[in-house]
User: What shape does this take?
Amino acid sequence: MRVGIVGGTGYGAVELMRFLTNHQAVDKIYLYSQSKQGTYISDVYPHLASIINVAMEELTVDHVVKHVDVLFFATPPAVSYQWIPALLETDVKIIDLSGDFRLDDPAVYEAWYKKTTASRDYLKQAVYGLADVYPDKIKQAQLIANPGCYPTATLLGLLPIIDKSFIDVDSIIVDGKTGVSGAGRSLSQGVHYAEMNENMRAYAVGSHKHTPEIERFLAEKTEKSIFINFTPHIVPMTRGILVTMYVNLTAAISRDTVQTLYESFYKERAFVRVKENHSLPETKHVYGSNYCDLHITVDQRTNRLIIVSVIDNLVKGASGQAIQNMNLLYGLNETEGLNLSPLYP
Ligand SMILES: NC(=O)C1=CN([C@@H]2O[C@H](COP(=O)(O)OP(=O)(O)OC[C@H]3O[C@@H](n4cnc5c(N)ncnc54)[C@H](OP(=O)(O)O)[C@@H]3O)[C@@H](O)[C@H]2O)C=CC1
Ligand SMILES: CC(=O)N[C@@H](CCC(=O)OP(=O)(O)O)C(=O)O
Assistant: This one.
């Protein structure tokens, strides 16, 4: 299989390379770059010397059609939507790590991203790539909208129970924390060392662009509008996302019942681990891997369900899930190339 990656100098791209250079079905990797055409990737990322010896090129549809079977966009918002309509006219399969095709209404995208995306006609051609929930739809797709990092951790935590009668869907509070690599490689004042070291902060309170993405897929499963409070926080570490979700219960239910429900929902999913009560998830338990660890608490005192979900933002939250989706697209074992155990310590 011949793979292309757009946005070659970014964190999502280099994480794709980490896995794809170990993927049995991948014969060739092409790298497309806006800023470093002609430069060898190992000159930008010296750790890749002797691992991938590829010079970055200019992205053109002709080059992709001639050389690539599956193309990953690891670019910021409002880039892929400019290219994907033309690519949909070809046989190339596309996996977009950006948010451009995750929503089904361009007006909603513009309201939350403050940017432009494709028209509805194109948006509806995308399949949402939450690999551990929609594997069958993904297998048939040409264009996959890879989920955002927070939505991945949140939806894996909520989708097993969102349509159950014991849940008050109007009470959902999602509290997320992310490492700094979630902001990408480009520097900005809020994320450099002196600003982040010994510090943490909430951001985009009441306005984070992942809110409508989470609400869209919760609503799709319950067939009613759902509004959540989602508050992200950035913390002084490189990788990791920890999301804690609070949901009011409308009926008494035991932890064992809910645990069994989650275990059954994910019983075929190699990368989702539903933890025992004594084993609270930590981001180091999934560091550098494609796992999502989930934990359930039923708080009888407040009559609330409390769900903790951890992922590596660059792996299950981006490039690992993107490769899991590629595996599904090509009928491969979905764990192919992703079987690295978490990095510990
Ligand atoms: N970081 C994370 O944890 C996650 C990121 N994502 C999403 O994945 C995508 C990539 O993120 P990430 O790798 O972290 O970001 P980075 O900023 O690290 O990399 C993005 C790359 O895109 C290219 N690029 C930047 N601006 C433009 C432009 N105007 N036109 C074309 N290419 C451009 C650059 O590469 P070059 O100059 O080489 O082309 C840049 O290095 C983003 O949409 C992000 O929101 C999703 C989930 C998690
Ligand atoms: C620390 C930080 O800035 N994190 C980013 C995560 C962005 C991301 O994951 O991008 P997608 O929208 O493509 O999913 C944020 O909160 O916007």
Summary: The chain has twelve helices and 13 strands.
